[in-house]
Write a structure and sequence with these properties.
SH3 type barrels; seven-stranded antiparallel β-sheet; two-stranded antiparallel ribbon; 1 helix; 12% helix; 35% strand; globular
């Protein structure tokens, strides 16, 4: 199980973490958690896919029906092929947005998360 500041995070949760694509700990990025328990550093890291406001060729729009609870304030996309393994210690509310004080943004539906994972697995196996 992945825990941070008394909250248990699970597959499907969308969380703010330190942005691995920018320098410094004062920049944040959203990631959708796709794996916690089978990660080699269970409890310390998770596998996440990038959530962005930029539409890319392989991006999937996050629509209202993809969320069990929560959502994003503007149109966002999930990038199944943009994978990162953030540390649980890096889950934090984004410091650049004063109005957001909770690093948890919401939870995606199991069906949508499964489709993201299936796409990732299909892409990796395509080249076997």
């Amino acid at each position: 199980m992945l825990e941070r500041n008394g909250r248990a995070y699970e597959v499907g949760d969308v969380v703010w973490t330190v942005d691995p694509f920018k320098l410094g700990h004062d920049r944040s990025r959203l990631f959708a958690i796709i794996c916690t328990r089978t990660h080699p550093f269970e409890g310390e890291q998770f596998i996440g896919v990038t959530v962005t406001t930029t539409d890319h060729l392989v991006a999937h729009p996050l629509e209202d029906h993809h969320w069990d609870i929560g959502g994003t304030p503007e149109q966002s996309y999930i990038l199944p092929l943009s994978i990162h393994t953030p540390r649980a210690d890096n889950i934090q509310a984004p410091t650049e947005y004063d109005a957001i004080t909770d690093p948890w943004q919401g939870r995606l539906t199991d069906k949508f998360v499964k489709s993201v994972i299936d796409e990732l697995i299909w892409t990796i196996r395509k080249y076997e």
